[in-house]
Amino acid sequence: MVNMKSISIFRFVFLFLFIFTCYFVFCSEGFPLLPSQFYGEIKIEEHYAPIGTNVSVYTEDGFLCGEVVIEKMGEYSISCRGDDPVTAKIEGAKENQDIIFYVNHKYTGIKVKWHEGGFVRVNLFLRADNDSNIEAYSPDYSTESVAPLLLLINAFVFFVIIIFLFFRMRDANG
After folding, report:
1. I need a labelling partner for 121 at 20 to 30 A (CA). Which of 91, 111, 145, 173 fits?
2. Is 123 exposed, middle or buried (0-12, 13-18, 19+ CB in 10 A)?
């Protein structure tokens, strides 16, 4: 005769492995990467950039991963999409790839690293030289990433579900 306790332990282990496998397969291919967010002040010739100024960000290999027209004088906020590593098509930036800033479609020379879920302050202080090219000076940036926090939250939710199922199965078997 088979012991009911060994059957419930087997069911729990099987259920745990099944949910664990489904959860990580679903998470690894089902969700797009979190974009990196860049924000800050923008000044041209020591004056706040006017409303309507275009700010765009490109990957180092020339892919446009974000573009915005500023709506508040002297401030911008732009998202740069990430590349899905599961697909062959390039949809955005890769981890630690250089991101290059352009203002009004002109090269600024400012480069920062892309990180999934990054939140980066990049102040753009620009001047126009005689050829009307835009040149950057004194970029100030700091990086904060929310990706580790999101992974921690996902792991916590996963283990809460497992614990809930364990106690539910234990109560059902008396």
Report:
1. 91
2. middle
Q: Which residues pair with 137 in a beta bridge?
A: 125
Residue 44 sits at φ, ψ, to 5 deg, of: -120, 125
Contact 101, 134 (CB under 8 A): no
Cα–Cα distance for residue pair 17/82, rounded to 1 Å: 30
Rounded Cα gap, residues 48 and 72, in angstroms:
10
Q: Which domains does the chain have, with CATH numbers?
A: 36-146 (2.60.40)
**69, β-bridge pairs:** 54
- Which residue intervals of the chain are DSSP H helices? 4-30, 147-172
Task: Locate 115 and state its tokens.
Answer: 């990180």
Q: What tokens were used for 156?
A: 């916590």
Which phi and psi (to 5°) does residue 136 adopt?
-95, 150
pTM for this model (two decimals) = 0.60
| Segment-wise mean pLDDT, segments of 10 residues, the chain, 174 residues | 61 70 56 84 90 93 92 94 82 90 89 88 78 44 53 73 75 65
